Structures are given as C-alpha cells and as structure tokens.
Amino acid sequence: MRETEGLADLIALLPGYNCGECGFRRCADFAAALVDGTIGSEECPFMQQNAFRERSVQIAELLPKIGYERGEPIVGVIDHLTADFALAPLPGEPSCREDLHPFDSAVHPETGDILRYRPLGCPITHFARVIAEGHGVVTVHLIGPRHRLGGEDDFEYQEIGICLVLAFEGVVVRGRVPDVSETVRFLPEHCMMQKVHSGVIVHSEGDRVRIESIDLKVW
C-alpha cells in the first residue's frame, strides 16, 4: 500500500464535513495530522458519535499500516507509545492467539464456545472463540466487539466476566523479531484500541513469538 492510497482511505473514513471544529480547515488536513501522530481521532467531535463508531475502529486499524509504509515507528493510537513490533495472527487464523485466565473459577468453556469478557485493565468488552481449554487457562481467537459479529441476536455467547490475559502468540510483521527473555513493547494488530502492550518473550522461532507476563502498562 502506497502512502497516497493509505491517506486516501483514511480521508474517506472521516466525516468529510470540512467544518473546522477540530482546528483544521479540511478533513484532509486532519487526516495528515492523524498520520503524523500530532492529533487523535477523538479531536473530531463527529467521530465520537455512534454513527461513526465503526469508522473509528477502522481508522485505528489503518493508521499503523500507513505509518509503517512511511518508514515511521510503530506507535499506539491511544497512548502514542512506541512499540518494538506489531503482532499479527498465525497464518490462516483470524487473530493472534490469547491465553486467558477467568477470575470466575466456575467457568469451564468448551472448544468452539463464544465468550464475552473484559480483560483486566482494558475498558473494552471482547468476544472470542475458544480453541482450547485446560487447567483454568482458555486459549482463544478474538473475533471482535459486537458490531463486527452481526446483529444483536445473531449469535449465542457465554458471559465470563473479567479475565487476566496471560499470553499472546502470533507472528512479527512489522518491527524487529525479539530474542527469548526480552521484555518488549508490542502492538497486537487486532487490538481495538491500538494500545501498546508489554510482556516477556518466552518463545521465538523465525517470525513466530509467544509473549507472556502481559501488561497494558509499558515497562
């Protein structure tokens, strides 16, 4: 993706009113400031409305890709922190693998179940599909917030409350591949907030890594 294409895609996601409420004369100027990291999408009053909520998520996903094509650092959209690398799903999988530990000890989901939960330290409610479970640890693929799953009643899910995220597993697609035992900053590409996470590399083989001791705070 060339920078001009990425910027055009970004402009198309903005309201297009050219109202000046954000401090810029045109939405195109606002888009350029988003790419440069000098302003956040929350500075546009219209992007906070329900009608533009899905577009806000799309913008958060697009910005890191534009920055990478420009040769810029990998920076979180919410916290503006710099990551060592971006983490993408394993080939053929919908998102990075995550290991969860539900705080409710009575929770024992089965493979294929859809879970609704909130990671400790994150304000966003997640939906995920179980791919393995054992000894109190649930391995999942994140499948989205509700608006990515269709209508309000299109699927059944199990509410499991707050969970501790124990690990991520995926492939490094941008930035450097870390060594085992390194404490790293990373940006999961499927993260709805595009928030930089931190953790410790416990396995590294080619571009595939496993990260444990996950924290939303950067060490």
List the domain count as a whole number: 2
Report strand %: 35-45%
Taking the alpha carbons of the first and last residues, their distance comes to 32 Å
Oligomeric organization of the protein chains: single chain
Contiguous runs where pLDDT drops below 50 for at least 5 residues: 147-152
Shape, principal axes of CA atoms: globular
- Please outline the major beta sheet: 9 strands, mixed
Average pLDDT rating: 85
Rg is 18 Å
The total count of strands amounts to 11
Structural category: alpha+beta
Domain 4Fe-4S: 2-61
Protein name: Ion-translocating oxidoreductase complex subunit B
GO molecular function: 4 iron, 4 sulfur cluster binding; metal ion binding
Organism: Candidatus Methanogaster sp. ANME-2c ERB4
Overview of this structure, please?
There is one protein chain. By secondary structure, the chain is an alpha+beta fold. The chain contains three helices and eleven strands; from the N terminus they run αααβββββββββββ. Helix 1 runs antiparallel to helix 3 (53-69). Residues 147-152 have low confidence and may be disordered. It comes from Candidatus Methanogaster sp. ANME-2c ERB4. It holds the Pfam family FeS. This is Ion-translocating oxidoreductase complex subunit B. GO terms for molecular function: 4 iron, 4 sulfur cluster binding; metal ion binding.
Descriptive tags:
single chain; 219 residues; alpha+beta; 3-methyladenine DNA Glycosylase II, Chain A, domain 3; two-stranded antiparallel ribbon; 3 helices; 11 strands; globular
